[in-house]
Amino acid sequence: MAFTLYDATVPQFLQLLAGVRAVLDKGLQHAQAVGLDPEELADARLIEDMFPLHQQVQLVAHHSAGALRDVAAGSFTFPSRERLGYTAMQKLVADSEAAVQGWSREAVDALADREVVFEAGGARREFRGAGFLTSFSTPNVYFHAVTAYDILRMRGVPLGKRDYEGQLRTQR
Q1: How many CA atoms lie within 13 A of 73 on its CB side?
Q2: CA nearest neighbour of 155 among 61, 62, 24
Q3: Torsions phi, psi for 43 (to 5 deg)
Q4: How, if at all, do strands 123-128 and 115-120 pair?
Q5: Sign (positive/negative) of CA torsion 83, 87, 93, 99?
Q6: What is the pLDDT of residues 50-96, one digit of tens each?
């Protein structure tokens, strides 16, 4: 069995998006249970120079569903920096899951050799689709997903590692 670009991306993106969805759901439940405004959670940061929860969630969406879209288009787009409220974050994750689920194996595998240009700060980097998705987007999805988890955990949301992991792809 060959391991394809689809195998290296779509299942991981879906697993992490589901994990983020679950931690956001638990975050909302926790906020309601303790009388905390969930918008305070949306603005929470691990440390001052890091993005708040709402941007961590936006970046998970951008580096999963958005990355597939960007590779197909041939250039990296920067995610919105617009502040999202708590329910908007939840909707963004659900929409991203649906978008990733909409990619067929054939369509993702066809992106492997596609040229993708990343331009920022006067620098230009050229990738092939496979390199962009596996060396840039996938690490970003993991980083921002775990950071979102950490922000909620730090704010007292009762989360465990299994919440972050999402649905494991076991044999049965």
Answers
A1: 10
A2: 24
A3: -95, 0
A4: antiparallel
A5: negative
A6: 999 999 999 999 999 999 999 999 999 988 889 999 999 999 999 99
């990355």: which residue's tokens?
67
- In words, the CATH class of domain 5-165 is mainly alpha
Cβ–Cβ under 8 Å, residues 42 and 52 = yes
Domain limits, the chain: 5-165
Question: How many other C-beta atoms can be found within 10 angstroms of the C-beta atom of residue 30?
Answer: 18
Query: What is the mean pLDDT of each successive set of 10 residues along the chain, which is 172 residues long?
Result: 92 96 97 97 96 98 97 92 95 98 98 94 93 97 97 96 82 75
> Which of 128, 105, 103 is closest to 118 using CA atoms?
128
Give the span between the Cα atoms of 102 and 114, in whole angstroms. 19
Contact 57, 89 (CB under 8 A): yes
Instruction: Quote the CA–CA distance of 89 and 49 in Å, as a whole number.
Output: 21
